[in-house]
Amino acid sequence: MSNRFMHLTNYSVNKESTSFVRSQNPDAEDCGSQWSFSGLLRYLKKNCKDIPTLISNIEDLVIKTIISAEETITTSCRYTPHKRNCFELYGFDVLIDENQSPWLLEVNTSPSVTCDDFLNLKIKSNLTADMLSLVGVKCKNPVEKKEKLTIANAYNEENFYWVKDREEERRGGFVRLFTRQDTWQRNGPKHLYAKKTAMYGTSSSGPRQNTKAYEEKLPPLT
Question: Where is composition skewed (Basic and acidic residues) in this entry (predicted)?
Answer without folding.
Answer: 213-222
